[in-house]
Amino acid sequence: MVTVIKVLTLPLSISVYDHVTGWVFIRCDYSGMLQTHCTLHIDFMANGSLFLSCLFCADGGDYGLDEKDMEASVATVQSLCEQVEADLILLRERSDTGGKIRDYLIRRRVGEQDFLEVRVAVVGNVDAGKSTLLGVLTHGELDNGRGFARQKLFRHKHEMESGRTSSVGNDILGFDQEGQVVNKPDSHGGGLDWTKICERSSKVITFIDLAGHEKYLKTTVFGMTGHLPDFCMLMVGSNAGIVGMTKEHLGLALALNVPVFVVVTKIDMCPANILQETLKLLQRLLKSPGCRKIPVLVQNKDDVVVTASNFSSERVCPIFQISNVTGENMDLLKMFLNLLSPRTTFNNDEPAEFQIDDTYSVPGVGTVVSGTTLRGLIRLNDMLLLGPDPLGVFIPIAVKSIHRKRMPVKEVHGGQTASFALKKIKRAAIRKGMVMISPKLQPQATWEFEAEILVLHHPTTISPRYQAMVHCGSIRQTATILSMNKDCLRTGDKASVHFRFIKTPEYLHCDQKLVFREGRTKAVGTITKLLQSVSTQAARAQQSRSQASKKTFREGAEDAAGSAGRPQSPTATQVSLKPGSGGRRRGGQRHRGKSLNTASVASAVPAGATDTS
After folding, report:
1. What residue numbers bound the domain in which 100 lies?
2. Long-range CB contacts (< 8 A, 24+ apart) of 145-153?
3. Per DSSP, which regions of 109-230 are E strands?
4. Do 282 and 148 fall into the same domain?
5. Which of residues 78, 108, 138 is at a domain's end?
6. In this structure, is residue 199 part of a structural domain?
7. pLDDT tens, position by position, 461-512
8. CA distance 360 to 148
9. Backbone conformation region of residue 79, classed left if phi is above 0, alpha if psi is from -120 to 50, else beta
10. Tens digits of per-residue pLDDT, 511-540?
11. What is this structure's pTM?
């Protein structure tokens, strides 16, 4: 939620804008209501910032203040900001009838080890300039038109050779309290020191660089669902227009209710008529019944302030026109990114929950998991439950160390991404989609669930027993349709569908968003009911039986190996030949093993003895 407070001279009126309730007019005095409003919004809003305009409002119109009244209003707000430990930052000043109007940003001060984090997913068709733009933004050097900037972001050799992103990349852009970029690449290697950037920043923008090629669509879908972006930056090449995966990625962002802003690149090499045609097609797409956005071409700082203050309403869609070679309009994009605030509020008093989106094995450290804290507070040495495993069991695990943006910290809050080093567990026992959760929640894994889905595209029809990949948070697993409330589904149909995972149970919530995908088939929906859950007692009993059978199998194999290598007494031989006590061999080895055991028995039985078995 973005709040706009308009400060006026006595008698003071405050008009607060909320995208849910609209404008609310309140009459108050400086010492009372204004202080209450500022304190309430800065202290209790998760984003820690709000917009404020100093002007005079009468007869339904906005009028400027003279110099004396303006200074008095600013002094009053400045004193209130000091009381609530916030900074007052001037965004713009404009003249109007009767005087001046100023727009300010009030931003809460953060500690040395803390910063606001906003996640922005970067999507668009292949060759739209996604990685190039991120290289220019994060490293502060313009591109040479031949891929110089993007080379600094690629993670794999084949990405450098092809120039195409194939994995989910993460890059950061830090802003200080005044809104200035603090990214300073190393003068020798050209790399970024994430720890120094985070220490100097009051806000960090985390860019989730996703693949644009259709071949890597499942990786892009996982990045959109598993990394929980606050906003989505859709890249469009001005010379190519709306082609390929552009509409696919836009539809995915809209289905997940992620606000979208558009960046049109390569305006330095595009003819004017082609650029205008691209903008016209883009505006038509955003206004279409499926989107229903209000496109706004951002051309100056006034447009940036207006669009940023109304962006969280999800109706306004800013459009930036930039060049990575000349740097044109790059300052407007940076200003807009600085004004973005996290969309979701989190309560630290709730039980902790953390979803895992990647695993690592670090030499000298051990097993490390990375992901997003969904709610609650996780501290160093906390005991959490990790799971579910293939049997649906959650095991206790201790947090050995915590890193946030490569910086060691003692705790993480809801909405923050982090990495945890875990004690006494191997990387092979952890997979993407697992969660670390507070024991207070008593989690249960789920095999089956119901969801309300909307089929975005399918070439034929969907019927029961159809299988496709389900993306839900960081979960990525194939599920089967067991039943649905319609005979078959086609493009554009809605239905209540009963799913079942085919491999392992997962930890799910009601009201979670999911994406259902297989080839060119795409559907989105929301989980409405959890049906078949694995009880903790049953899962642990099954795990114990499985471990016992493995132990018996291991001991039997050792006995069989021992009997083949040394003479045994008749009693021992008879025991080793009981059904189920020997190790099972594959193929021809099974018969060879039988003959070997027979030979061993013959050599072990004394001459003239009678077999009584």
Report:
1. 4-108
2. 145/269, 145/325, 149/324, 152/190, 152/191, 153/209
3. 116-124, 169-175, 203-209
4. yes
5. 108
6. yes
7. 999 999 999 999 999 999 999 999 999 999 999 999 999 999 999 999 999 9
8. 29
9. alpha
10. 999 999 988 788 999 999 999 877 655 566
11. 0.81
